[in-house]
Amino acid sequence: MPRVIKHPEIRREELLDHAQALFLTLGYEKASLNEVITAAGASKGAFYHYFPSKEALLEALAERFARQALAGVQDVLDDPGLDPLGRLNGLLAQSRRAKIDTAPEAWALFETLFRPDNLVLFYRINLAASASFSPLLVKIIRQGVEDGTFRTFDPEGVADIVMQFGMATQGVIAKAIAGGSDADMDVAIEALENRVRLYEIALDRILGLPDGSICIGEPGYVRAAMTARRRTNSGKAQ
Amino acid sequence: MPRVIKHPEIRREELLDHAQALFLTLGYEKASLNEVITAAGASKGAFYHYFPSKEALLEALAERFARQALAGVQDVLDDPGLDPLGRLNGLLAQSRRAKIDTAPEAWALFETLFRPDNLVLFYRINLAASASFSPLLVKIIRQGVEDGTFRTFDPEGVADIVMQFGMATQGVIAKAIAGGSDADMDVAIEALENRVRLYEIALDRILGLPDGSICIGEPGYVRAAMTARRRTNSGKAQ
């Protein structure tokens, strides 16, 4: 039988599919790289060629999640009826919708990142995930500066601040997860909702917009994203 | 000879003095905990009682540096002639002056924090250093909200954002250090100065102030702080 030569990109995607399936079944912490390699029917050499470590695998999964989440956003970017603020809010809404839709899987794969001792991995994987998000953000902010909607001298810098705001929630989310009780979770969700409000107003003002212009999270968004984890963990996924 | 019983706080300060002296001579990386213990003439048991690890020692040194840096700030806080913006700028100016004054020692002790793989340690030590800075910041912001100078619903949250801005410079500083040439350093210093400008305007706006109200770094501040390291490293300290 002739050996089937697959395109490297297809092979890589297949390996990611197998890894994701195994991480969803066993959990990222418990699944070993050897189990992933066996499940994928790959040679060790081929596997390590694509993913030199388990963390590199998680990084690639995060990058793929983020890319898929933004697949539908091109409509928003191309819509001639939207001004830059509409585009920015559309981009944030799309990213939010994708997060809610994939929340149970995302928690199962990435919960490990919210352990305090995984801060470096959290940053690395956040950077990988932002690789597709950040350039869109810069582009929209730059458009807004050009047409006078936004008022800043540094669109790249403002995009970095948006990313920082996202990364800074790690501590709050870590606390929400560490607390075991429903009351702990409620306190943490309220803290996170409050922080989202602050970041919205901060971004409004950094861009020279009236308070209430930018929507990072609708009411209920934080709770929906956080409780998706609890449903998964207790095995009562809807 | 009767054994001299020292107050635990005095003993702790002495151990920190010895550690600081040794780190300044040998460098933090090269000095071992055993050398610090020998230099301090302490028993291992006593030493580990105060500092369970070398990182805990660095954390305590950072906390002490920050506390000393703010020793002169009480005048600013008590000055009845200053409004909240004057107090905030006074606090930032004091912290800046202290950083410049202690820059050669601070670089020798803390340069290790700007290695990419020391991100967790950087965060931990930044938190320790901010323990004395952050409450002052919250207090001043709250005063400003009460008298109508500042406009925000979340003084603690804004103080957190100030801290985040500080932490986010780690990457830029790491890059400046990694680049070997003077040209690399110039590019990095310019990037950092630009980022300071952005953070100043961002804070102005987050607090509802006109652009140009808050001064995080005077012109030349970044260069002065960064080049203090080069002088030290090349042995040409002034």
TrEMBL record, chains A, B:
One MF annotation (Gene Ontology) recorded for this entry: transcription cis-regulatory region binding
Stored Pfam families: TetR_N
Annotated HTH tetR-type domain residues: 9-69
Residue ranges the UniProt entry marks as DNA-binding: 32-51
Keywords: DNA-binding, Transcription, Transcription regulation
Listed transmembrane segments: none
Protein name, as recorded: AcrR family transcriptional regulator
Species per Swiss-Prot/TrEMBL record: Mesorhizobium sangaii
